[in-house]
Amino acid sequence: MSSNAPRRPVRDLRFFLTVPHACSYLPGKEATTLFLDPQESPVPGVYDSLSLLGFRRSGRHLYRPHCEGCNACRSVRIPVGEFSASRTQRKIWRRNADIDIRVIAARFDATHYALYADYIRQRHADGDMYPPSRDQYRTFLTLEEPYAHLMEMYLEGELVAVAAFDHLEHGLSAIYTFFKVDDALEKRSLGTLAILQLIALCQEKNLPHLYLGYWIEECRKMRYKQAFSPIELLDGRHWRPLIR
């Protein structure tokens, strides 16, 4: 994403709040989401600025949690220049040396969707994205914008994982990863591999950060993010190290 992208001051943008709804991460909690006006396209410049304030992209929408009396959702990012892979992560990298990587535009592909649908059915049948549908997939992960990409992972010619990510001015933003659920592939830790590959891509492109979305200390499904060190969280308008 070019540093010469047009910018609009955040104060000139319009935002809307959703009505309270059941929290997807914390049982018994209600959540409210702050959205950029849907009439505003997530163009470069606007997207770059809002991502620094903790906004994420889902399809054409930029959003962040805005829950009264709760700030459990914290935006986190990896300063890739300081990243140090753990022993386990180095093993995962070596174990997957035979994986072929391709980066393409975030367009719809029936093979991608089939892998996604199977992943949702097997891993997230209790979540908001179940049951999967082609329309839901298109709305969530495809976008005809120059910054939106998909990273494909192939093993012996077979698609085994896809990681959706955006190329921002100041880093890459990991949107979502899905992969083949198979006992034979479990030791490959494809979800972790996707993050390691995005870190490597940041380093290759001299981008300072990899944004990993939100982290909730009480949420078991998000604990994997703590395995990447160092990691920073957004505290108000300032990023600071997450010390565990």
Can you describe what's shown?
This protein is of the alpha+beta class. Helices cover 21% and strands 31% of the residues. The protein is built from five helices and 14 strands. It has an eight-stranded mixed beta sheet. Strands 1-4-6-5 form a four-stranded antiparallel beta sheet. It is found in: Cytoplasm.
Any descriptors?
244 residues, alpha+beta, eight-stranded mixed β-sheet, four-stranded antiparallel β-sheet, 5 helices, 14 strands, 21% helix, globular, Acyl_CoA_acyltransferase, transferase
Précis, in short:
By secondary structure, the chain is an alpha+beta fold. It has helices spanning 46-51, 87-95, 110-123, 134-141, 190-204, and strands at 15-17, 21-22, 30-31, 33-36, 56-58, 61-65, 74-79, 99-105, 148-155, 158-168, 171-179, 209-215, 232-235, 238-241.
- Could you give the order of the helices and strands? EEEEHEEEHEHHEEEHEEE
Give the terminus-to-terminus CA distance.
33 Å
Strand content: 25-35%
Overall pLDDT score:
93
Largest sheet: 8 strands, mixed
Q: Treating each run of at least 4 consecutive H or I residues as one helix, how many helices? A: 5
Keywords: Acyltransferase, Cytoplasm, Transferase
InterPro entries: Acyl_CoA_acyltransferase (IPR016181), Asp_Glu_LeuTrfase (IPR017138), N-end_Aminoacyl_Trfase (IPR030700), N-end_Aminoacyl_Trfase_C (IPR007472), N-end_Aminoacyl_Trfase_N (IPR007471)
GO molecular function: transferase activity
Function: Functions in the N-end rule pathway of protein degradation where it conjugates Leu from its aminoacyl-tRNA to the N-termini of proteins containing an N-terminal aspartate or glutamate.
